[in-house]
Amino acid sequence: MNRLVGVTSPYLLQHAENPVDWWPWETDAFEEARRRDVPVLLSVGYSACHWCHVMAHESFEDEATAAYLNEHFVNIKVDREERPDVDAVYMEAVQAATGQGGWPMTVFLTADAEPFYFGTYFPPEPRHGMPSFRQVIEGVDTAWTDRREEVAEVAAKIVGELAERSLAYNAPEMPAEEELAQALLGLTRDYDATHGGFGGAPKFPAAMVLEFLLRHYARTGSEGALQMARDTGEVMARGGIYDQLGGGFARYSVDREWIVPHFEKMLYDNALLCRVYAHLWRATGSDLARRVALETADFLVSELRTQEGGFASALDADSDDGTGRHVEGAYYVWTPEQLREVLGEEDARFAAQRFLVTEKGTFEEGASVLQLSETEAESEALGLAEAGRVASVRARLLAARAQRPGPGRDDKVVAAWNGLAIAALAEVGAFFDRPDLVERATEAADLLVRVHMDDGARIARTSKDGKVGANAGVLEDYADVAEGFLALASVTGEGVWLDFAGFLLDIVIDQFVGEGGALYDTANDAEKLIRRPQDPTDNATPSGWTAAAGALLSYAAHTGSEAHRTAAERALGVVKALGPRAPRFIGWGLSVAEAALDGPREVAVVGPADDPLTKDLHRVALLARAPGAVVAVGEVGSEEFPLLADRPAGAYVCRHFVCDAPTTEPSVLRERLGAEAQAEAGTES
Q1: Class of domain 10-164
Q2: What's the predicted TM-score (pTM) here?
Q3: CATH number for region 177-317+410-598
């Protein structure tokens, strides 16, 4: 009996027809293991995971393997995106035991959910020194049957070691200039000056680090920080990791040159990078950054927006290559012959030169991943005729690609990632006069309030097809949704979004803050696992810990709340400890620290909503580079934002609610929010 039919997770539904008797993660599954006196196989993955699909096809769809699993195990399948708490706890155990991790994650547990054997992908036959999956499950069954005491000892030892890894936290002071300068120096050492980005292969788009670099430049004038951000932004935008036809970024590059991506496209990467490129344009005026920000926003809307107004989680890496085979990247790559079929001989040569499509190919079987050949400066120098030809070629290739079998889409709406998308679309819409993008952000925010939030403002992790999922929100859900609501409040001038953010952040303080100001990933009243997950470092998204610090800080700037400011500052103590040592892994915390050192600036724009001067002042405020600045706009006498209370018409720049004299001159406001900060801070590099 497979119990996955009817769940909301697209990943679990992919396994609903397996011959394996899968259970979802629930108490009854462990009770069944106890009743039958068998171990638990825990298999964790996600819908866009290439190797998850491979292992499912090789092992979980195999009748003989499934029969063995059903007889000797209780089998639990978990979507890591729906249950990040379960994933985090057991991934920590896998990494501690093996020195590496990844998905699919394969863990064997006792009926008390204690792990005793670990792995990731296992092949159907022995390969490259790896045992086959059948050998693994037979070995685990033998150990369970013949060496039970040894299994129990191993499980108890692992649980004990995990308990000892809890973070000791005594709320150290938030970072100062020294720690942020050390973090910048550490990033300089890790920076790939030849190819951009940080570290080697595989190379991930470091959105949170890029945001820190841009904020550091805005506060200090550091040209070195700006150069790393600008150059990395350009090489990623020109590389294969960026979809040169349809916009949007793939998950990561398998090489250090950004040529060949892992082709899955995730909502969180694209939301974060959409916002970063908008901020890069704000700092530099780069036409390339502007184009990428807008194209990525349009990708979010055209490819990931759901019927209910939210945003789906991901597009798969794999798709049908036209022969019935599911192949990674098949939807995106091109051969010279395919270019000729679509464009004709002359335009095919032009496209091959522009997008670096070769006879040898840069991917598999002679295919090439499209890249952009010229630098930004060369692109800007294109004449009108040449630019028109480029647009025509792109449009025809995109139309032809749309006829190919497309990658699957995970339609699950994750609260946290939708919060990131709301913030990005609201800002990009405001920066580039695209009210439709602000409207899409508002619709997504409405969905989160209507479907994900209950009457007590507790938030559910996921929904699908407008139906809320059963799993409780974790810290990143509360933090990132609050971040999205705060950005939407600044852009729209609708104070209701500030109120909703406040409801969520009050729950953060009540349910997620522990001793000394430390933050946990799950609420006080959440399901108890073998360890309460807690991680201040970024992964593919900002850590819940530092995302909460950022939202708390912004809310305090909007409202003057000392309780929220204190909670943010106490949480930022972890950045003082980790920032100088591991800046690549706490980029969002460093970004929030930049905002805290700058104030952050609070901008109140007071005036009639339909007055062109009010609109001009509001736009100047939104385009300010001041790190983490918050903006409130409204009529004289408005009570929607505390920053506006009892203020005559004009624009005010404040810190901690202490304000400069108002101005009605956009140029004066621009100076107060831009050059003033760098003049005060100097030009530290």
Answers
A1: alpha beta
A2: 0.94
A3: 1.50.10.10
